[in-house]
Design goal:
Structural class: alpha+beta
Number of domains: 3
Distance between the termini: 80 Å
Radius of gyration: 32 Å
Strand order of the largest sheet: 2-1-4-3
Number of strands: 18
Order of helices and strands: HHEEEEEEEEEHEEHEEHEEEEE
Strand content: 15-25%
Length: 309
Amino acid sequence: MKKVDFMVSRANAVILSLVLLLTCSGCDLLSDFWGGVGTQMPEYDYQIIYHLNGGLNSQNNPSGFNAQRTTDIQLDDASRDGYVFEGWFSDEEFTNHIVNISRHTTEDVEVYAKWEFLYALREQGPAGGLIFYRDEQDEYSWNYLEAAPSGWNGTSTDPYAIFGYWKESPNASCLTVGTENTIGSGKMNTDKLVAAMGDSAYRYHDGTATTDTYAAKICADLVMQYNSNTYDDWFLPSENELLAMKQNLHNFSIGGFSSNSYDYYWSSSEEYGYPWLPQMVSCILNFSEYRSRNVTKQEIYFIRPIRAF
């Protein structure tokens, strides 16, 4: 018994010495065997490469598979806000729909997620308004622009308001806040205008009278309830957003916009290229025909809030 105990103890000592040797030497032997410190033995023989195209993968979908498997792989749907999942495809042109990954596959597999917009143009959006723009090229952090529904202010017509002037003091010169006219700039424009003018937009460029009722603030302050949900993310559209609303809603005789030849809608875009006093004019758009004008900010025109989501 003593001889056996001695042999076991000696064997344990040899194993312990080997472990210490490998540890102290930086595990060079293990590193060479596994391919480097921290490298793990591969879990799968083949990879599944997912091209999600803006979506999120299901946690149930594997990152690979082994050659010895006996069943086909069924992939779960991916998800993406504002879109409907159309399926997995083996090519980026979406010509070959994948039902499953065959158990006979012996190579890496690439799959592409295909999406379709949840809302169509001119369809009712989640806040009760109409969708008038979709981010087809995936350029923005949002997918849709939705116009406030007709009657959003509790009356049968859109309200009138001034644009308002920004001055740092009653007797100072008028200033601009740095707006843009592009799609996607309306929210930024509105935030800048409200931050600058607050509750005291000047009614006239050469006067001291102020008001808290002006186009950008009316839109920013709007809170609407629809289907038990609250929507408070409205803003005054930029010039090009206003144009998209005209082209995709008014031109199809929907949306409840004023269409008299003398009626215009405010945009949130100030005009900088105007030859005289650029800090005093902003862009408006006539909905009965495409006619954009630059007018002084003390004039009153229609407003229609929009939101992005």
